[in-house]
Amino acid sequence: MVRMLGGCMVFAGCLGLGLWYRYQFGARIKALHNLERMLELLASEVRYGRATLPECCSHIAGGLDSGFEEAFLEVGRRMEENMGLSFGEVFQEEMEKALGRLPLQEADRENFLRFAARTGYADSQMQLREIEQSGELLRDTRERLERENAEKCRMAVGLGAMGGLLLILVLW
Amino acid sequence: MENSILQLFPSGSRALWQSVAEEQASIQEIRLRAGQPIIIHRKGKELFLTDWGRLSRNPAEGHLATGRELSETLEHICHYSPYAFEEELRQGFITVAGGHRVGVAGQAVLETDGRVRTFKNISYLNIRVSHQMKGAADKILPVMYREGGLRSALIISPPGCGKTTLLRDLIRQISDGNAWGQGMTVGVVDERSELAGSFLGKPQNDMGMRTDVLDGCPKDIGMLLLLRSMSPQVIAIDELGGDGELKALGQAAACGCRILATVHGEDRRDVERRFGLEAAYWERLFEVFLVLGKEDGRCVIRQVSERGGAYG
Description:
The complex is a heterodimer.
Chain A: H1 2-49, H2 53-61, H3 66-81, H4 87-99, H5 106-113, H6 124-171
Helix pairs in contact in A: 1-2, 1-6, 2-3, 3-4, 5-6
Chain B: H1 14-22, E1 27-33, E2 39-42, E3 45-49, E4 55-56, H2 67-77, H3 86-91, E5 93-95, E6 101-110, E7 116-128, H4 141-144, E8 145-146, E9 149-150, E10 153-157, H5 163-176, E11 186-190, E12 211-215, H6 219-229, E13 234-237, H7 243-254, E14 258-264, H8 268-275, H9 279-285, E15 288-295, E16 298-306
Parallel strand pairs in B: 10-14, 10-15, 11-12, 11-13, 13-14
Antiparallel strand pairs in B: 1-2, 1-7, 2-3, 3-4, 5-6, 6-7, 8-9, 15-16
């Protein structure tokens, strides 16, 4: 009876691990989607509002998830404080705090922060292009993940279940 | 506004500018040219900023500004978003926090029709440090009012005689109220951001508590906009120019607004000649005419005349 219960628990644990991995794949896609949305909002502010980048950050903060709302507001506040740091430095510092909480890879973070290091364009089209390029890189990653995701999710759950069964057999 | 010029520079070069910022009150102009020593105009004298952040009279000791320093400074001034200042750059200057004006020059990029689109390879910056002179209009306030009511006034002055400074203080005192009259709602059309020194829409100079500033808008359009939207009791503009502006002033006057305006000129006759309009036209718009000039290098009010009075 105890052996039976132990076997069930091992199976449930392995299956749970597989489901957690499946959730993680989905969460990264969702996070990438959110980052794309933020860059789109920034681009809209530049395109239609002709606002400065720090102003854009303050303007879009309101509609974002709580972690990013604070980060974007902080970028606007610190730039207004004007301690002499560049927008790229402040943006990177503040965003890394918020990005650290998301299931992203280093390349995703770099792609998101990429545009902030490329400022100083006198033409808004050039600045827009930089923001859009960051967004395109994130979108490419997301679309690739979405294509691979269904297969990966099935594999993660299947491997979890199969691994659980294998472990029960070995331990029995 | 104290030490506000330090804020124009990125953190990497602030140590160099610390002593200049401490003397901001006496500094008129800072000139940066790529490959040339940085020149500071202080109390009418030319000084050079050394590598150690001191001011020297010897050009050989001057810190040579690099192109990189200039571009970093300009980027910092523009909040790392020069595109947001496209229109200002096209005109060749940006008004920054603190009301200072940064003139830029470099290689002009032209539109197909020959208009300046923007500047690239900016190699020259001229920072004109703003100094608001509160009380500059104290002496003329008594003639501006009659029985507690404000009178429309035209300030005539050659360049560099303080007409903008005088108008700015007049606006502030009329808006806040003074010993001669109660506070009034003033609408200011600040086409070149010189009066209010607006940066990102916020006036950097004290324009008074009842003042609405329309920044960066052509004066003729702006006056009509303000009339419709803000119901000003007084409309103020700097450097009266074309016929459209005179027409808009006429409309404002017809709506019962008092008018404060400045115009380039030596005296009333000079203004009448340049605009090709006789004295009666001006007297329909204005009740007081102030002529500024310089005596012994100092800006003074040379003449005050009233509607119907002699001014020859």
